[in-house]
C-alpha cells in the first residue's frame, strides 16, 4: 500500500547520541517524580463525596429465574451483537474490536437498559451476573496470556534505546497530567473510602495505557506493521504495556495493603517472580524451544500450558494482586518465536475472540451507564479527561520522538498510535471499579475516553500520512 511506502521512506533529520538520550530520559523521570510528589502533597487534605456502599443497591429477593436459560440467551445476544457491530465497524475502516466494545455499551443500561429496561432486566437478571463475571474473568486472563505471548523480546532489544525513551515519555506525561487532573476530579467524583494518593496514581496509570493488540491490528490492516514506523510503534507499545502493568501492580498492591499489608504482599510477589523466572521459564523453554516453528505441539503440551497459566493467575490472585497479572506474565515467558506461541495464538484465538471477550465487553457495558454523566459540568469533566489523555499521550510521544531523531510526521504518527487504548484500558478500568478506587461516574467517563481515543486512531493516522482510505 502507498501508506506503507510513505512511512518507510520519510527521512530522519538527525541521530542524537546515546549519552544525550540517556540524560534526557533521566531528567524526564526525575521531573515527573517531583511533580507527582507535589500533586500528592497538594491533594492530601482533599475529601471525596461518593459512597460506594450506598450506591451498590442489590435487590433483597431477586425473582426466580432459570439460570441456564437466561445465561444461554444472554450469551446469544452478546455474541450476536458483538459480531454485528464489529462487522459494521470493519466496514467503517475501524478494527472489529472497537465495534465489539461499542456493542457492549449498546446492550447495557446506556441504550438497551434505557430504551427497554424490562427486556434488559429479563435478559440479564441479577442471578446470572456472577456466572457471566467468572466467564469474563477467565476469558480476559486467556486474552492477556496471548498478549504476553505476542511480546517479542528480540523486538524490544533491537530498538531499545529509542523505544524506551519514546515509550516511557508516552507513559510519564499522561501519568503526570492524569494525576494532576485528579486534584479536580477527586473532590467531585472520588470514593470516600479511597485516599487521594491511590486515586491520583490510578488515574495516572489509566491515562498512560496503550492497547498493544488493537494497535497491532490497526498497523496490520494498514500494511504498516513491517515498516520502520510500524515496528517502532509496536516496540513502544510493548514496552508501554509491560511498564504500565508493573506500575498498576504496584498501585493495586498499595490499594489492597489496607486489608493484607504491603509487606506480606511484596514478599509473596518476590517469591512468585523467583519461581516463575527460576522454574517456569526454563520449563517453558524446554517445552517450547525458541526458533523451532516446526516443533510438534500436542494437545498434552497445550493442556500443560493451560494448567500452568491458570496456576500463575491463581497465584497472583492469592497474593493480593489481580489474577490478570499472572496470566499476562506467564504469556511473556513463552518464547515468542516458538511453535507453541504460534499454536496457541492460532488455536485459542477464535474461542477467546468469539465467545469470551464479548462477555467481558458486555459486562463492561452493563457496568457503564452514560446516564450517570449528567449536566454541563460533568460533560465538561468528561471532555477534560479525553483532552488530557490525548494531549498527554500524543504530546509525550511526539516530543520524545522528535528529540530521538524522528521526523515531524513520524513523531505525529507515533503519537496517534500510542493514543490507542481500546481493550487494555477497559481491563484497567474494571480493576479500578472492582477495587472501589473509582466511582461508576468516573468509570463511565473513562470508558468514553477509551472509545473516543481508539476511534480517532485510524482516521488521524490516514490524515497524518497523507494517504486516502
**CATH top level?**
Mainly Alpha
> How much helicity do the residues have?
over 70%
Tally of extended strands?
Answer: 0
Overall CATH architecture? Up-down Bundle
> What percentage of amino acids are in beta strands?
under 5%
- Helices and strands, in order, run as HHHHHHHHHHHHHHHHHHHHH
Number of domains: 1
What is the CATH T-level topology? Answer: Na+/H+ antiporter like fold
Principal-axis shape: globular
Mean pLDDT: 83
Radius of gyration: 22 Å
Task: Quickly count the helices.
Answer: 21
| Class based on secondary structure composition and strand pairing | mainly alpha
How far is the first residue's CA from the last residue's CA?
10 Å
- Regions with little confidence, pLDDT below 50 for 5+ residues: 1-9
For the sheet with most strands, the description reads: none
Topology:
Layout: H1 2-9, H2 18-42, H3 52-55, H4 67-91, H5 96-106, H6 112-115, H7 117-123, H8 129-150, H9 153-158, H10 160-189, H11 196-208, H12 212-221, H13 228-260, H14 262-287, H15 299-319, H16 323-333, H17 339-367, H18 375-403, H19 408-418, H20 422-434, H21 440-464
Could you describe the 3D structure shown?
Helix content is 77%, strand content 0%. The longest helix is centred in the middle third of the chain and has 33 residues, at 228-260. The chain has one domain: Up-down Bundle (Na+/H+ antiporter like fold), CATH 1.20.1530. The radius of gyration is 22 Å and the shape is globular. The protein is mostly helical and 469 residues long. It contains 21 helices and no strands. Residues 1-9 have low confidence and may be disordered.
Amino acid at each position: 500500500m502507498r501508506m506503507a511506502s510513505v512511512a518507510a521512506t520519510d527521512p530522519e533529520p538527525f541521530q542524537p547520541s546515546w549519552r544525550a538520550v540517556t540524560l534526557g530520559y533521566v531528567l524526564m523521570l526525575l521531573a515527573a517524580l517531583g511533580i507527582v510528589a507535589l500533586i500528592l502533597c497538594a491533594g492530601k487534605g482533599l475529601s471525596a463525596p461518593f459512597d460506594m456502599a450506598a450506591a451498590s443497591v442489590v435487590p433483597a429477593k431477586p425473582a426466580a429465574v432459570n439460570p441456564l436459560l437466561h445465561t444461554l440467551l444472554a450469551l446469544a445476544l452478546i455474541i450476536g451483537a458483538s459480531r454485528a457491530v464489529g462487522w459494521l465497524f470493519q466496514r467503517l475502516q475501524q478494527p472489529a474490536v472497537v465495534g465489539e466494545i461499542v456493542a457492549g455499551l449498546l446492550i447495557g443500561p446506556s441504550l438497551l437498559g434505557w430504551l427497554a429496561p424490562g427486556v434488559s432486566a429479563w435478559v440479564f437478571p441479577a442471578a446470572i451476573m456472577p456466572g457471566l463475571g467468572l466467564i469474563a474473568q477467565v476469558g480476559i486472563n486467556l486474552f492477556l496470556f496471548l498478549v504476553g505471548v505476542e511480546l517479542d523480546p528480540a523486538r524490544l532489544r533491537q530498538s531499545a534505546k529509542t523505544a524506551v525513551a519514546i515509550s516511557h515519555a508516552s507513559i510519564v506525561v499522561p501519568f503526570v497530567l492524569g494525576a494532576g487532573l485528579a486534584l479536580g476530579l477527586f473532590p467531585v467524583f472520588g470514593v470516600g473510602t479511597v485516599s487521594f494518593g491511590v486515586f491520583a496514581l490510578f488515574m495516572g496509570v489509566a491515562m498512560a495505557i496503550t492497547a498493544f493488540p488493537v494497535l497491532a491490528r490497526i498497523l496490520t490492516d494498514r500494511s504498516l506493521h513491517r515498516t520502520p514506523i510500524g515496528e517502532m510503534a509496536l516496540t513502544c507499545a510493548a514496552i508501554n504495556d509491560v511498564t504500565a502493568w508493573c506500575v498498576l501492580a504496584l498501585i493495586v498492591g498499595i490499594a489492597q495493603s489496607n486489608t493484607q499489608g504491603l509487606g506480606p504482599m511484596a514478599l509473596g510477589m518476590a517469591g512468585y517472580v523467583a519461581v516463575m523466572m527460576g522454574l517456569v521459564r526454563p520449563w517453558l523453554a524446554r517445552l517450547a524451544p525458541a526458533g523451532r516453528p516446526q516443533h510438534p505441539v500436542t494437545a498434552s503440551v497445550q493442556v500443560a500450558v493451560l494448567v500452568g497459566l491458570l496456576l500463575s493467575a491463581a497465584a497472583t490472585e492469592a497474593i493480593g494482586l489481580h489474577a490478570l497479572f499472572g496470566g499476562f506474565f506467564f504469556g511473556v515467558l513463552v518464547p515468542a518465536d516458538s511453535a507453541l506461541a504460534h499454536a496457541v495464538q492460532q488455536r485459542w484465538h477464535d474461542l477467546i475472540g468469539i465467545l469470551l471477550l464479548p462477555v467481558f465487553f458486555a459486562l463492561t457495558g452493563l457496568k457503564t451507564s452514560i446516564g450517570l454523566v449528567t449536566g454541563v459540568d460533568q460533560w465538561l469533566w468528561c471532555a477534560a479527561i479525553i483532552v488530557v489523555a490525548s494531549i498527554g499521550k500524543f504530546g509525550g510521544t511526539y516530543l520524545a520522538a522528535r528529540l530521538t531523531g524522528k521526523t515531524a510526521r513520524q513523531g505525529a504518527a507515533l503519537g496517534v498510535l500510542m493514543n490507542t487504548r481500546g481493550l487494555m484500558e477497559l481491563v484497567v478500568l474494571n480493576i479500578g471499579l472492582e477495587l472501589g478506587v473509582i466511582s461508576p461516574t468516573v468509570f463511565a467517563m473513562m470508558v468514553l475516553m477509551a472509545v473516543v481515543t481508539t476511534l480517532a486512531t485510524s482516521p488521524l493516522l490516514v490524515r497524518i500520512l497523507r494517504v486516502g482510505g
